[in-house]
Amino acid sequence: MRSLLPALLLTSSVLAAKTLPGGYIVELSSAPASKRFADVHEEFIEALDRRAAGHFRTRRKYKNRLFNGMAIQLDTPQDLADLASLPNVIAVHPIVIHPGPAPVSQRVLTDSSAFAAGTDGENTHIMTGVDKVHASGITGAGIKIAIIDSGIDYMHPSLGGGFGPGFKVAGGTDLVGDSYTGENTPVPDADPMDCVGHGTHVAGIIGANPGNDLGISGVAYNATILAYKVGGCNGGIGDDVIIDAIMRAHDAGADIITMSFGSIDGWSNSLLSVVASRVAEQGVVITASAGNDGEAGPLYMSTPAAGENVIAVGSVENTVRTVQSFKASEPHDPILYRILSYPAVPGPPLGNVTEEPLPVLSIYPFPPDYPTEKCSQLQGLPDDIPDDLSGYAVVVRGTANMDCALMEALALKHPAVAIFYDFPAALQNENNYPAVLLYNDSDGFFLADAFNNGTNITVTFPQHDGAVDVPVADDIGGLMSSYSSMGPSNDLMFKPALSAPGGNITSTYLTELGGWAVMSGTSMACPFAAGSAALVLQAQGQTKLPGSVRSILQTTATSVPASKADNALPASLSWQGSGLVNVWNAINVNTLISPSELLLNDTAHWNDKHTITVQNAGIVAQTYAFSHQAAGTTLALAAGQHDIVGSAQLVSAPVHVSFSQSTVTVAPGSSSSVDVTITPPEGVDADTLPIVSGWIIVKSDSDSLKVPYLGVAGSLSDAQAISTSNVLTKGRDILPGIIPVDEGRISTGPKNYTAKDPSSWPVMWFGLSMPSRLVLVDLIDAAIDVTSNVPHTTSRSAAVEKRAWSSWLPATVKSKLSAPSSVADSATVPIVGALAEFDWLPRSGIYPNSGDATYTVHVVNFANGTKIPLGQYKVLLRVLRPFGNPDEEDDFDVYVSYQIGFVP
Ligand SMILES: *[C@@H]1O[C@H](CO)[C@@H](O)[C@H](O)[C@H]1NC(C)=O
Ligand SMILES: *[C@@H]1O[C@H](CO)[C@@H](O)[C@H](O)[C@H]1NC(C)=O
Ligand SMILES: *[C@@H]1O[C@H](CO)[C@@H](O)[C@H](O)[C@H]1NC(C)=O
Ligand SMILES: *[C@@H]1O[C@H](CO)[C@@H](O)[C@H](O)[C@H]1NC(C)=O
Ligand SMILES: *[C@@H]1O[C@H](CO)[C@@H](O)[C@H](O)[C@H]1NC(C)=O
Ligand SMILES: *[C@@H]1O[C@H](CO)[C@@H](O)[C@H](O)[C@H]1NC(C)=O
Ligand SMILES: *[C@@H]1O[C@H](CO)[C@@H](O)[C@H](O)[C@H]1NC(C)=O
Ligand SMILES: *[C@@H]1O[C@H](CO)[C@@H](O)[C@H](O)[C@H]1NC(C)=O
């Protein structure tokens, strides 16, 4: 739980999590305090009515034994103070807005049928043993899977073509309406039709019927699907809606709930993670995508994936990908192409291109060194080509200097289709004619040569048999996807739990946009794991094999190597979890092992002794041998650094493992235990926070299982928690510091701000090198000297740029009205007033291709909304280090700013 006591939450500023201004989820006790009220909600509303200074609005009510409470919208911060003091209030949480479900990439396909019907030749199914499970007749029948996502295009022929009882998509609802953005008021209706495509893709991974043009099928295509639509056509999704959807799915009897979305959080006790975890405790399997932030490095899980009982799913690259092809009239292999789309999601792809052979007309054989000036002089096409190209497939070679108006010029001549080759891969056609880009330039040269030597060559774009599977680039197929988020959770739980295929996945898509798309993301891996769970549940129902789905899938997964090199180390389990799911293994072992994860913690809290229990569920005695397989050790920090960046180093630094006995013979129906002692590796630099992981292998003649373990061979609480470098600002300012709004750079000394211009009053800017469960930002008197254990910083760069303040000054996030008295007591520093307080913050991260995630607090008002009086102050930043005690001043990192004065 996020907080046990009613938390007073007021506005402050933080960049990381986005929250709904004035929106809160109030957790209520189960029974009203007074007998006058039928339920606790009524009592709460009446009390709030009496107390609220402004107005409030009920967003939704939760009446469930797993979560009782209300989501409300308040007008003023004062109401919040009232709210927290009402009877029955257990906790108050801001409504977090999660980004809408989205893949890392997507590509829409034409419909095609290249595959033999009847057998399951789908590559991701072969990688995970699902093909053999299907062949054995297990396809998810009788299992109910709830998909919480953007809705489902249930009219898709491969998804049943209808909605409601009797259809594949048998139930569910739309909790928000198409216009919901996460920030406006949801307008629910009964119809969970998808307008985004994401939920439809997810649904196909679980449930697409076989026998379609693409030759794919869902992992559990006979399962029943419930569609809970929580996202509109654009924007994000509020926690309040997701929690409602989880409760409804649970009430509707879902065996499995799958959620392909989330935000960086990493704490197993965020409200969403906790609610999901409570439902999972009831025996419902919950899968959630690990997140697509792998490039930010370890210790960066998403919520709800971080929930204790939630199965967090990482993504493995498919070994093939589906691409379209057309044929030439001269002998040649099928020519692979992608559609040049504009905007990013195209209309019916090439749906307008005839299936008749089209004569080729080759133009512009630009040499690679074709000069830009010449190109721009052309401003169009050569004179000698026909005005009407509607009967031709126009083959066009590009050049590095493709800035001439060629693509626009071509639009005036209406080509039947334009075939581009030797262009930059990022080429987009913004004009309304069908255009494709060839994957292999040699195919373009072949077409151009044939045209130029007088061959009467034609091309044919098949509408129904053009999809081919081609191997993905050798260096990534079958490996972890670079975007797949890394764990462990901030409390060193085993996250992710396991991995599934998620990169380059072909599945169903909005029917009106062609019906098929290739997408990549942990969003795609997550439903694969949900479908796998359905197969295990169905098999369990048949054989009565006990054990939780999570432990069965974890102990039978297969190891994912870190690279394609010979003798490559297995990827860290903080990335792959226990490995790639293998459903065939999962349903064919006659052994259960528990626990299914060994949590070693860090060296300050190391758990060295574990007991593994082996249960023989078969009909013959089995002798099990115990051994150890280490994965690569991830050095979370580079030597001498305090901020985690994406390029964490993988080294061989295994833990030491010893067993109380190396083999054990277990009679059928019995179980036996073996003690395992695990000690940290020697010779590694503990300051780099080495993440150690691997598996205890338990093997008999017929079964091979593994128990994953994970820990940190260093102490998180010894690591610096406040960032003191410019790593998080990508080489710009060195954090932390005070940044005057009108200067846009961190101050390098004391500074006065005039009362006349409060808009220029400063912002405290900081980054977290480590996750922290308590961050206090206070104003203190300038005369007070406080010992800082992180230094004053100066800006290294001379250039002063203005930043777009409105865009990065962030949304409201929780902060308490005043510091807990325990902290104030142990602190020797008298505080003028609290500026902000944050609990359970994730560490800051940087992404190679996007922004950073640092924190800001505007120094204008106290946390309670009262304006700061004129005077001379300093800002005191205190960050509780991981596993620290909030009552111990020594467990905080402390930073004191330069003097700031507010003068007339
Ligand atoms: C499973 O799905 C297939 C394909 O849609 C269908 O033909 C078959 O009848 C289903 N079987 C059951 C048991 O629902
Ligand atoms: C395809 O045809 C439809 C109607 O027949 C038209 O609206 C659309 O613009 C055409 N698309 C392309 C890419 O030519
Ligand atoms: C013309 O070029 C095509 C493609 O390179 C080739 O297959 C064909 O043999 C050539 N024909 C002649 C007559 O040179
Ligand atoms: C070229 O091929 C097309 C399509 O096969 C055919 O209609 C046409 O007569 C051919 N032209 C010549 C000059 O051979
Ligand atoms: C899909 O496969 C292609 C080709 O191998 C590869 O370049 C690309 O990175 C993959 N895409 C994703 C998002 O995994
Ligand atoms: C590791 O130890 C800390 C401190 O006792 C605790 O808060 C945390 O939950 C532990 N994590 C695990 C996975 O046991
Ligand atoms: C800020 O104002 C105070 C009071 O007027 C003055 O003592 C102090 O020197 C000023 N500081 C700076 C940096 O100008
Ligand atoms: C708000 O907090 C400040 C600083 O702690 C305090 O001086 C002020 O009285 C508070 N205002 C209200 C309305 O409680």
From TrEMBL:
<feature type="active site" description="Charge relay system">
    <location>
        <position position="149"/>
    </location>
</feature>
<feature type="active site" description="Charge relay system">
    <location>
        <position position="523"/>
    </location>
</feature>
<keyword id="KW-0645">Protease</keyword>
<dbReference type="GO" id="GO:0006508">
    <property type="term" value="P:proteolysis"/>
</dbReference>
<dbReference type="GO" id="GO:0016020">
    <property type="term" value="C:membrane"/>
</dbReference>
<keyword id="KW-0720">Serine protease</keyword>
<dbReference type="InterPro" id="IPR022398">
    <property type="entry name" value="Peptidase_S8_His-AS"/>
</dbReference>
<dbReference type="InterPro" id="IPR000209">
    <property type="entry name" value="Peptidase_S8/S53_dom"/>
</dbReference>
<dbReference type="InterPro" id="IPR023827">
    <property type="entry name" value="Peptidase_S8_Asp-AS"/>
</dbReference>
<feature type="domain" description="Peptidase S8/S53">
    <location>
        <begin position="140"/>
        <end position="563"/>
    </location>
</feature>
<feature type="domain" description="C5a peptidase/Subtilisin-like protease SBT2-like Fn3-like">
    <location>
        <begin position="600"/>
        <end position="710"/>
    </location>
</feature>
<dbReference type="InterPro" id="IPR015500">
    <property type="entry name" value="Peptidase_S8_subtilisin-rel"/>
</dbReference>
<dbReference type="InterPro" id="IPR023828">
    <property type="entry name" value="Peptidase_S8_Ser-AS"/>
</dbReference>
<dbReference type="InterPro" id="IPR010435">
    <property type="entry name" value="C5a/SBT2-like_Fn3"/>
</dbReference>
<dbReference type="InterPro" id="IPR036852">
    <property type="entry name" value="Peptidase_S8/S53_dom_sf"/>
</dbReference>
<dbReference type="GO" id="GO:0005615">
    <property type="term" value="C:extracellular space"/>
</dbReference>
<comment type="similarity">
    <text>Belongs to the peptidase S8 family.</text>
</comment>
<dbReference type="InterPro" id="IPR034187">
    <property type="entry name" value="Peptidases_S8_5"/>
</dbReference>
<feature type="active site" description="Charge relay system">
    <location>
        <position position="198"/>
    </location>
</feature>
<keyword id="KW-0378">Hydrolase</keyword>
<dbReference type="Pfam" id="PF06280">
    <property type="entry name" value="fn3_5"/>
</dbReference>
<dbReference type="InterPro" id="IPR050131">
    <property type="entry name" value="Peptidase_S8_subtilisin-like"/>
</dbReference>
<protein>
    <submittedName>
        <fullName>Subtilisin-like protein</fullName>
    </submittedName>
</protein>
<keyword id="KW-0732">Signal</keyword>
<dbReference type="Pfam" id="PF00082">
    <property type="entry name" value="Peptidase_S8"/>
</dbReference>
<feature type="signal peptide">
    <location>
        <begin position="1"/>
        <end position="16"/>
    </location>
</feature>
<dbReference type="GO" id="GO:0004252">
    <property type="term" value="F:serine-type endopeptidase activity"/>
</dbReference>
